[in-house]
Amino acid sequence: MRHRSASNILLCLALLAGAGLPASAVSADAPGEVVVATIAASINPVTADYLSYVIEKAEEKEAALIVVELDTPGGLDTAMRQMVQEIIATRIPVVVYVSPSGSRAASAGVLITLAADVAAMAPGTNIGAAHPVSVGGGGMDNTMARKVENDAAAYARSLAEKKGRNGEWAESAVRESVSLTEKDALEKNVIDLVAPSLDGLLEKLDGREIAKGDAKRVLRTKGNRITRLPMGVRHRILSALANPNIAYILMMIGVYGIFFELSNPGAVFPGVVGGISLILGFYSLQTLSANYAGFLLIALAIILFILEVKVHSYGALTIGGVVAMSLGSLMLFRSSVDPWLRISWGVLLTMVGVSVVFFTTVVTLAVRSQMRKPVTGAEGMLGEIGEAMEDFDGEGKVFLLGEWWNARCGVPLKKGEKVTVVGREGMTLLVQPRIPRG
Question: Which of 27, 147, 263, 415 is catalytic?
Answer without folding.
Answer: 147
